[in-house]
Design brief:
There is one protein chain. The chain has helices at about 10-25, 30-45, 50-70, 75-90, 90-105, 110-120, 125-140, 145-150, 155-170, 180-190. The protein is globular and about 50 Å long. With about 190 residues, it is mainly alpha-helical.
């Protein structure tokens, strides 16, 4: 029996998306959707106790995400999602170029800056991480990430990222920020905790 992922994706859906992606020379949508479907199926297999099946699907998802980002380098969502996938797989150094590409294409995307900051922090590049976390707060002061992550099951992730942001800002100071501006950023972060 096919394992169904959380949002109803099954093996048949993945096969259909793969077939469509072979014909998708101009848009890249189906390649990207096939990657997403493979990732969701992999998570479903992982939850059902099939680590070998999950590993194979994660490899397929990575191949498709990279293909979409490399074939369509001007689409910020493809680059960012590839970086987020690699970050989720605990490979932050590999994620950084894709996340940088995503924020270069959509510079005012606060989530892009947050995830780039996370990849930099997890790669031991705290000073650069502070700059990215600060940009995220600056470009969306009410912190879009906090609102999005307040949905069911994401509250812990939201809290951890806000704490990391606060701690890094306190430890390193926000690069290029004046003390009053840094205080405003910290005040925003603290109010969301």
């Amino acid at each position: 029996a096919a394992v169904r992922a959380r949002d109803g994706i099954d093996d048949e859906v993945l096969r259909g998306l793969r077939a469509a992606s072979r014909l998708d020379g101009a848009v890249g949508l189906y390649v990207h959707q096939a990657a997403y479907a493979a990732e969701e199926l992999a998570l479903g297999r992982q939850e059902s106790g099939d680590p070998a099946g999950a590993a194979a699907l994660f490899e397929e998802a990575e191949e498709d995400y990279r293909l979409a980002a490399d074939r369509f380098p001007d689409v910020p969502g493809f680059a960012s999602r590839t970086g987020n996938f690699l970050l989720d797989r605990d490979r932050p150094a590999e994620a950084i170029p894709y996340l940088r590409q995503g924020v270069a294409l959509d510079f005012y995307d606060p989530l892009g800056h947050f995830f780039l900051g996370e990849a930099l922090r997890r790669s031991g590049r705290d000073r650069e991480a502070v700059e990215e976390y600060t940009r995220a707060v600056r470009y969306y002061p009410r912190l879009a990430a906090a609102a999005l992550w307040s949905e069911a099951g994401q509250e812990e992730r939201r809290r951890l990222i806000l704490e990391k942001t606060r701690d890094l800002l306190l430890a390193e100071g926000a690069a290029g920020e004046t003390a009053p501006a840094r205080a405003r950023v910290l005040e925003h972060v603290e109010s969301l905790l």
